[in-house]
């Protein structure tokens, strides 16, 4: 949906300037060609096979069960359906079930479930597109500040400081790295995602989130290089590691911090 929205905006913008030259050869700037349905959202058009375009029955859209009933293939053309669908559905279900057990029927459970849904979505998008869209991160940031007006997870002052510190900490690292190497070390979406955790749980969780995400990211990156799944110097998405570290800090952050301090 976001890709189509951006493409539509680009088409509209470029169409206004298509008479301008694109390069030294005076090549005419043309808007990209893309066909957009009049409506495109979570409801319209309905779910369909990307290969044969056959509509997917509602019963086959049931999380996990639909994929199992179809045996991982389209009912119309037998095109394979990625196992990623049931895997993400299962992970999300298990995470929310754990939150229900951990928090019980409370406002904390409701809010952390929303956060979890968004983190799963951000993880999938960043893995695919190397992008953490503002359409998800910014509402999460504001929601965290709002729910902490009543000190739900952190005091209002800690949440405000956490949001600013989360963004500025990675922003400073980004520019220090860029000045030293001339390269971008991470994307701005990473700044905003760390700011989300600062807004939700206060500035106190930020060192733990940064430490855990950096440690896991380094281990995964080195492993991929060793097994030649990633060329040295190629970028890897950092958002999934921040999301995982933030979720862990949300549940066990205080215990981990106390354990660490007790070992000093």
UniProtKB/TrEMBL annotation:
Keyword Translocase applies: no
InterPro entries the UniProt entry points to: Peptidase_A24A_bac, Prepilin_IV_endopep_pep, Prepilin_pept_A24_N, Prepilin_peptidase/N-MTase
UniProt KW keywords: Cell inner membrane, Cell membrane, Hydrolase, Membrane, Methyltransferase, Multifunctional enzyme, Protease, Transferase, Transmembrane, Transmembrane helix
Residues of the Prepilin peptidase A24 N-terminal domain: 33-103
Transmembrane domains' residue ranges: 85-103, 159-181, 193-226, 238-261
Catalytic activity field: Typically cleaves a -Gly-|-Phe- bond to release an N-terminal, basic peptide of 5-8 residues from type IV prepilin, and then N-methylates the new N-terminal amino group, the methyl donor being S-adenosyl-L-methionine
Membrane topology of this protein: Multi-pass membrane protein
Keyword presence, Acyltransferase: no
Main location: membrane
Signal peptide region: none
Listed Pfam families: A24_N_bact, Peptidase_A24
Domain Prepilin type IV endopeptidase peptidase: 114-222
Its EC number(s): 2.1.1.-, 3.4.23.43
Subcellular location: Cell inner membrane; Cell membrane
Role according to the record: Plays an essential role in type IV pili and type II pseudopili formation by proteolytically removing the leader sequence from substrate proteins and subsequently monomethylating the alpha-amino group of the newly exposed N-terminal phenylalanine.
Family: Belongs to the peptidase A24 family.
Official protein name in the record: Prepilin leader peptidase/N-methyltransferase
Species assigned in the record: Shewanella sairae
